[in-house]
Write a structure and sequence with these properties.
elongated; 2 strands; two-stranded antiparallel sheet; single chain; 64% helix; mainly alpha
């Protein structure tokens, strides 16, 4: 009996991967906005509310990224376009890996900040989240510094990620960008 040929890799990302990608992008944009507002807002009930929303969304991002990673491990990426050099493929893998690490590290470092500061953490006001560490000013200061470095690193990598997608779309005329757009079909490479 002849073994059927393995299916060819998809040309575009599947709809669930696209949902994870774009919803993560929106969540991060909202997180950045809330975090920036919370840090710059004068001490008031509004500032505390902004921080509570920021923290709750951070925990949501952590849970969402866990689901996203599980989906990604079960659903491989589409093959790169034929004109993508091995160096570009390696750079893309490294950048994507770093983005995943940062999207886990950011909410964890925020959780450590909150725990070390000994603030109660209620997820969207619904239930309490246990602290990750004991109250400690030194740990809080270190976690805040780490959180800030991770933030700027994430911003830089997201900008690089977007620029690379636009570069491939406009200059190379390949489908790197269009295969992740929300309403493109998930076709397969021709055999």
């Amino acid at each position: 009996m002849k073994t059927p040929p393995a299916p060819s890799p998809p040309l575009a990302w599947d709809p669930v991967s696209k949902l994870f990608h774009w919803s993560t992008a929106v969540l991060i944009l909202v997180m950045v906005t809330l975090g920036w507002l919370a840090v710059t807002y004068p001490l008031s009930p509004t500032k505390l509310a902004l921080f509570n929303w920021h923290k709750s969304l951070g925990l949501l991002v952590l849970a969402w990224m866990t689901l996203r990673l599980a989906w990604r491990l079960a659903h491989p990426a589409p093959a790169p376009p034929a004109d993508t050099s091995p160096a570009e493929q390696r750079a893309a893998r490294i950048a994507h890996g770093c983005l995943y690490i940062l999207m886990f590290a950011m909410p964890i470092s925020g959780w450590v900040i909150n725990s070390a500061a000994d603030f109660p953490l209620k997820w969207f006001g619904l239930f309490s989240i246990p602290p990750l560490v004991a109250p400690d000013q030194g740990v809080q200061d270190t976690a805040e510094a780490v959180h800030l470095v991770l933030f700027w690193t994430l911003i830089g990598l997201v900008a690089l990620h977007a620029a690379a997608a636009v570069h491939h779309h406009r200059r190379r005329r390949n489908n790197v960008l269009t295969r992740m757009l929300p309403f493109t079909r998930s076709e397969r490479w021709p055999r």
